[in-house]
Structures are given as structure tokens and as C-alpha cells.
Amino acid sequence: MRYRALLAALCLSTATLAGCTAQAELTDADVLARAKADNLNRHVSSAFEPTAQVLADADGSGVDAVNRFFDSSDTLVIAGPRVADQLRAASIAVVAHAPMLTMSSSNRSAVVEEISRLGARVVLAVGEVDLADARGQLTVIKDPGTFVALGEMTAFQFEGTPVASADGAVAAVAALDPARPSYLYPGWVTGGEPTDDWASAQGRGHEKAPAFPVQSKRDADMAPVVIASNDSSIASVATARSFGASVRVMPVADPRYSTDTLAMVAGLADSPLIALGQQFGTADELREKIRLGEATTSELPGGGGVVFPDRTVVGVQVGEEALGDWRAADESRLIEGIDSVLDGAAAQQSALERVIGGRTTPALVVPVDADTPQSVVDDLVRETGARGAFLFLQVAPGYQASDLVRQALGSAHVSVSLDSGSLPIASEDVTRWAGDLDEAARAGSLPQKALVVRQRASGQVSDPQALGSGSPMVQLVIAADGSATATAAGTAQDAARAVFGEVTSDYTQAGGQTFFGWVSPATPGGGESAGVASADHDGFAQLSPRPWLIIRG
Known about the structure:
Elements: H1 2-14, H2 17-24, H3 28-40, E1 52-55, H4 63-69, E2 75-79, H5 83-96, E3 100-102, H6 108-118, E4 122-126, E5 134-135, E6 138-142, H7 147-154, E7 159-163, H8 169-174, E8 182-186, H9 198-201, E9 225-229, H10 234-243, E10 247-250, H11 259-265, E11 273-276, H12 283-295, E12 312-317, H13 320-328, H14 331-356, E13 360-367, H15 374-386, E14 390-395, H16 403-408, E15 414-419, H17 427-443, E16 449-455, E17 474-481, H18 489-504, E18 514-520, H19 530-539, E19 547-552
Parallel strand pairs: 1-11, 2-3, 2-4, 4-6, 7-8, 9-10, 9-11, 12-13, 12-19, 13-14, 14-15, 15-16, 16-17, 17-18, 18-19
Antiparallel strand pairs: 5-6
Helix pairs in contact: 1-2, 3-11, 4-10, 5-10, 13-14, 14-15, 14-19
């Protein structure tokens, strides 16, 4: 973990070998306790709010961040909508300690108003920026776009630095150091690298780019902790950096994602904190997630405190026949049967992981009802937990949570899957189950639970737009079930994909609260792991929106 690595580096430079050994053995609780002390042991200017603040930046312009960090500024950098132009603009803005905005046709008026509010006298336009060359007292410099122009405009020598992927753009901007000028460019784009350099351009006879004034850093090391995620705008992150604030980037906009991300904000639920982007929710929602993360005493299978995104759960459906055998078996045969199915789930997880990459976690989906023996559920909970797998208890939506189910939900890796077959599903039942899961997670200081709603056709849920747990402790997953659509492998995959498209069209992912799953048909004669692997290879990549839960039907 990055925070542990930082502590280890400090240890090597300042402590004895014994001290280093102690640092290397830090538990998650130790890491969070030290992070909390570090976060609270900093003086923040009274110019900032005393508690968490979310700068929504709904239009991606970066206006909210500029408005928060800069009361005024003589200079301003404005980029066009291209990512390459935004990376270049950020590279200049951080070195020049100038705020940055991104202009598009949809936010032009807001950007123009911000120019006026700042009282800017010099604007550097990078890329396609719809501004006149001069407007009254305002001078607009058109960036030539060359590598040598960077030095001519700022009097600094830049080092070309490729960004490996679009997902790494925000982190790259957050890492910009004004003392070591870097020219960020999209390394994932062919031909995106600089086409000229400082030395070869000397004496070339080109027209020298106008100077862009460099300002002083505004922050005197008194800015609050600033967090961003991969969904934050480049402009907002660059503005925070140009002000002088450090920016901590989370892979997912939820502090509970990992110990590292929770350490970034530990202790700051009621202290100064700035989050860049509406993906963090409201300030109250962010504060609640920090408190919940700090109260959680366990992790999900595969780590972390949130189920999705950035984790693909690969599940195996346990059929009624196998479940009947388990009910009749003695304990040793029961455990043997569970372990055999878990082996199959692990094989499918491995097969899918080779295709899609990233983090995958196995799961079992097991039907339970009033006749399910306590011993079967107890063994399922124990064995799946020991194997690092999720366990989804499959129940009818109208089924009332029994003591059997409530007891099982006291384990971090146990969640619920609602399945009514082809019968209608009342949204009220989904809401009631979400409340049960929320209660179980909070009572046990557990990480987030998943509530899977298995849907076989469009319109099966009475009011799909009303779904949504409204709780940070429950993630709703709509699983489109195409497992029984056909028997031949080719037609089964096509039909299952069609069901996925029809079901997901019933929903919107407002606020990132709803995720999607796919119950795929097994490939006849394909062996234990062929169902999911073939389903993914032949059609998983074609599915949109992306399913984060894959179940072999």
C-alpha cells in the first residue's frame, strides 16, 4: 500500500533497523491511526471551510475549483476539449501558478464569466478555445503547440513526459512539480509525443512565442487535504496544484475503496477537506463514507470496503439438484460438495481474468428458503469465507429475511440475490431488502453489501427508476439473466446479449449507485470453466454498460 510504503521510506532514512522492522509490520489499524494523526496535525488557513467540501464541477470546466482557490489572478490558462490540450495546459498552469479552465461549446459562458471574476489580464489559450485575440484590457495568447514554445513562454525548460493511459491522466497532473517542469502528453496516442525540442529549435528562424507571466505560489503550506479520482477534471486538479495544494488521487471516488484511500482522509470527516468532482457525492455523503470506513472492522473478499467498481465478481449458480444433495449429505460430504463448486468458481474466475484483466473475485449463488437447514448455510458461509469468495443467498423478493439469513449476513462476504423467476418484482420488495442489508452492515461494522436483482426481461421490475438503496452500505446490481434463452451455444450467447440490452435499458446509473451484471448461459460440452470464459470472449466486451458481476447460469 502506498501509505505503508511512504512510512517504510521514512523509516529507512530516519530509524534503526529494529524500528524499520516494526514499521514493516504495521497493521491496517496502525496505518489509519498514523494517517489520522498526520492529517489532523496540519494548520489550515481560515480562508477554507472547517469541514469537508465537494466542488461538483458538473460541466467539467474547472470553474468551481478556480472559484474556490483563486479570488483573483492576473493570468489564466484555458484548454480546449481535447485531452492532449488539457494535459499541455495543465503542464503550463502548474509551472506558472496560474488557474486553469477547460472550454467547450456547452460551458463557454461560464468560462467567460470566470475570466471577468478573476480580473485576468493575460489568458493562454491551448487548443480550440473560442476567445478573441484581445478583449479590452485582456490579452489572449494563442499557444503555438510546439515543445520549444513551452520554454519561450515560461523561460523554463520542460521534460517531455508521456502519460501511459487516459485513466492515468488525473494522477499525472496531480504529480506535476512546478520545480521540475514536465510536459505531459498522451502516450497512448500514436504521434502524441513532442515533435521538436529545445536545442534543435534554436536559430530555426521561427517566430518566438509571447511570454506568459509566471506568478508566485499562493499556498503557504496551509491548504486543506485535497482529493480527486480518475473522474475528476484535469482543469480542477491542475488549479489545485497551481495554487500549491497537494492532491491525493483515489482510483474510485469512495474513501472505503482500500486502506490507502481511507488513509488519505482519515480523521477528516469533520475537518477541512476538499474533494474535486461530483462523483464524491455531496459533502454530507462524503463525510458519512469517511465515518463508515473508519468504523469498519473487516474487508470484502479481494480487499477493500466497496463491492464495485474496479472488481469483477465471477459467480457460479448452485442448482436445486446440487442443493438437494447437500441437504441430504452428512457434514463431510457437504463440505466436499461445496469445495468442489468453489473449485469450479475459482477456475471460471481465472479464465475470465485472463481475458479482461484487473481484479476478479469468485462467488457462489445459492438458493435458500424456509426449508434450508442451518447446517448447510453455516458451512456455506464458513467455506466461502475461507476461500476468499462472495456468497450470494438467493431468495424470492417477497421472502421475509429469516433469522437464518440475518445471521449469515453478519459475515462480510455474504450478500443477497433476489430472484422471482419470470414473475413481476415489486420495487417495494427491493427497497425492503436494501434496508435489511443496510441494517446488517451497520450493526456489524461491516463493509458494503451487494443487492442483486435478477431480471429476465424488460419491465419485470414494477418501477425500475425508483430503485436505488439510498444507502452507502448497499450497492444495487441489476443482473440481466439470459441463461435460459436458447440451447445452442451460438444462439444462446446472442440471445443472452439481447436480454442484457433490453434489461439495462430500463435503468440509468444516476450517481453511480446502480451497477449491472450478466447471467450468461453455459456453453454445452465446454467443461467446468468454459461457460463464463466463452461468454466473455465471444460477447463480454460487446456489452454496454459494463457488467461487473458475471454468473454462469
